[in-house]
Amino acid sequence: EDQVTQSPEALRLQEGESSSLNCSYTVSGLRGLFWYRQDPGKGPEFLFTLYSAGEEKEKERLKATLTKKESFLHITAPKPEDSATYLCAVHIVTQGGSEKLVFGKGTKLTVNP
Amino acid sequence: KAGVTQTPRYLIKTRGQQVTLSCSPISGHRSVSWYQQTPGQGLQFLFEYFSETQRNKGNFPGRFSGRQFSNSRSEMNVSTLELGDSALYLCASSPVTGMDGELFFGEGSRLTVL
């Protein structure tokens, strides 16, 4: 069964304290991996797409990396406004040719001033 | 540019009833996908429509159905509601079909089943 596991479930950081969020996956037919950010009461907001092992993408204080079995979202010198739930999703194509997105349950990040 | 609009934002139903949720995608986007979000299961893919055709479907029972109109607006319907259907239902639009691209999500319709 296709699985996406995010860790930790929750993370508290002090402002400026860098850390990483993990997304590990056990899937077949991986086409791509996405990171989204979700604020309370809002829909997810796209951050990155990664397609192949070794790929890296950066946006402000965030950097996403991808290996064959996991992805990391590195947060450098976070600010309180980075507080949100970060979701990882994998794009899968099944043997029958259908596509789906499988999401992890997210990491809730809190950055204290 | 207006974002993805979902209506209603909140609704309460009782077991056995049915519900219809609406989604208006970003102008020019022809793909609309639906997701169920619960604290226990997280975000789960329901189905995706492109140019009025269902292109992809998740692992949900037949009580969950959808359709897309010629103007790309989409509706999803849940019949014979169960308590476990209580969730935030999110709609997302994309200019391309499939899951290979950025999705633009609405703020969701929160359904409570009593």
Give a written overview of the molecule.
The complex is a heterodimer of chains A (113) and B (114). Chain A has strands at 3-7, 10-14, 19-26, 30-38, 45-50, 56-59, 62-66, 70-75, 84-93, 99-103, 107-112. Chain A has 113 residues and is an all-beta fold. In chain A, the strands form two sheets. In chain A, strands 2, 4, 5, 9, 10 and 11 form a six-stranded mixed sheet that branches. A five-stranded antiparallel sheet of chain A has the order 1-3-8-7-6, with no helix packed on it. In chain A, strand 4 and strand 5 (45-50) form a beta hairpin. In chain B, strands 2, 4, 5, 6, 9, 10 and 11 form a seven-stranded mixed sheet that branches. Chain B has a four-stranded antiparallel sheet with strand order 1-3-8-7, with no helix packed on it. The mean pLDDT of chain B is 94. The radius of gyration of chain B is 13 Å and the shape is globular. The chains are: A mainly beta (113), B mainly beta (114). At the A-B interface, strand 4, strand 5, strand 9 and strand 10 of A face strand 5, strand 6 and strand 10 of B.
Averaged pLDDT of chain B, please?
94
Strand content of chain A: over 45%
Whole-number radius of gyration of chain B? Answer: 13 Å
Number of helices of chain A: 0
E-strand count of chain B:
11
What is the number of strand segments of chain A?
11
**What would you call the quaternary organization?**
heterodimer
Helix content of chain B: under 10%
* Class by SSE composition of chain B: mainly beta
Q: What is the straight-line distance between the termini of chain B?
A: 37 Å
Mean pLDDT of chain A: 94
Helix and strand succession of chain A?
Answer: EEEEEEEEEEE
The chain-level structural class of chain A is mainly beta
Which shape of chain B, going by the Cα principal axes?
globular
Pair with the biggest interface = A-B, 23 and 26 residues
Largest sheet of chain B: 7 strands, mixed
Distance between the termini of chain A: 41 Å
The poorly predicted ranges of chain A are: none
